Amino acid sequence: MSQEQVLDERLNNHGLADPSRRRLLVGSAGAMAAVSLLGLSPLSRAEEPKTLPEYAAWKDRNALIVHSANTMETERGAIGNGVITPTGRLFVRNNLPPPPAGIIENADAWEVRIEGVRNPRTLSLGELKTMGVTTVASVLQCSGNGRAFFPHGASGTQWTVGAAGCVMWTGIPLKDLADALGGLAENARYITGTGGESLPDGLDPASIVVERSIPTRALDSALLAWEMNDEPLTRAHGGPLRLVVPGYYGVNNVKYVKTIAFTEEQTNAKIQTSGYRVREVGKSGSPDQPSMWEMNVKSWVTAPLESGRAGRNMIYGVAFGGTVAVEKVEVSTDGGKSWHPARFLGPDLGPYAWRPFVLAADLPAGEHRIVSRATDAEGNRQPEGRTENERGYGHNGWSDHGVTVTLS
Amino acid sequence: MRRHAVLAGALGLLASTPALSDELAQGKTVFIQEAQPSCTICHSLDDAGSSGAIGPDLDELKPSYQQVLAAVTTGVGVMPSFEASLTQAQIQAVARYVSQATGGPP
Questions:
Q1: Whether A149 contacts A386, CB under 8 Å
Q2: Residue range A143-160: mean pLDDT, rounded
Q3: How far is CA A91 from the centre of its chain?
Q4: Most Cβ neighbours (<10 Å): which of A6, A75, A132, A364?
């Protein structure tokens, strides 16, 4: 197969509207996505595959597309049917470079300040571990997952489906912690978490600090997590302590959290006031626009992706509802003309986890456009199309997320 | 001046145009000194001797002239817009400089 044919297939399979977004075939290890922060891909030839940055060197290189030192995407075919994404395959997205390795050396000594409660305190991780614990599965997904499918060339990492995984967190429920400190201050409307990255001199801290505010209703599920998938939380994923908000977009899950404040207003950090705001194409972000909080219902096919044998095929994928459980998934092998119910695979790990699904289908030789469409427990169903917005956030349209498979 | 002529020549540009060499020199000055905050705080760029780690490493990103122009003018993600603090000439110069110095498309 020629390089051009492989490129064309990958373009089809990812449903990319802009043919200038090319993926380069490098050896037999897979393809590399061309790096683009502004939606325009420089057509680089013979680009060496990037190595993993040192803080993520332990990860599964073959399962990842390295966009940059701070953005690594899981290959579409590296998500399977085991429900929980192995930590080595989980995507990475840092808004700032991670703190140095020493941060997790004495994890129990990490301190977090809790404010906006009757009895504000600074507590060590060692102490938190004695105050309460829960284990919960949730989907971690970047707001920009699916950005590559927007035709206007939204600026930011051109994720397709791989800025998402489902992992098991262990930590203390934030509600239990707040209660132990006397409960919320009277006028508290938001949970504001601040990341512990050190900020360089010469920049206004508000312009880069990772500080996010989410509504206090998130206390239903939020936790301060110190473990992922049965292991101490790694630096790559926000260790030693991370604010985890099941069902909310990734940016709200503040890494290396050093302060939790229950506040009356949202933070004035730029990442909150103008970042992660949904608005029409061509406009700048501002606080009067919706913030990327609760995730929407979504699904995508993970196999087959390119080619296969005519006859009986098992079509696999994952589906989730955000803060609401996913109720059902339907699959179409004719681009959405006819739909068939798919079966969930594996146990229900709770409303915030995803559910692998499978549909067995007898398919003749030829090209098939395979798409999936999920419905959540409140009756919200994935739309066919995308909601155009400047930064390409929140894409859950089923049409763009399909795959075109050639069977012979 | 000689350094920039060598730079331009090595990239197979029209190295003999003084206007281009001037623009590259100006662009480098914008990158290091004139932009506030300085580009060097957030970006790594070997030619400028900077190793900022907040934004992408420009030697890795290899942005095109158009990409730098757009980023500096409108901002992108956490990067602010410099439209109000830099002139059009400064923005064009730094865009020319960054794309050439990193080996990005012209």
A1: yes
A2: 93
A3: 8
A4: A75
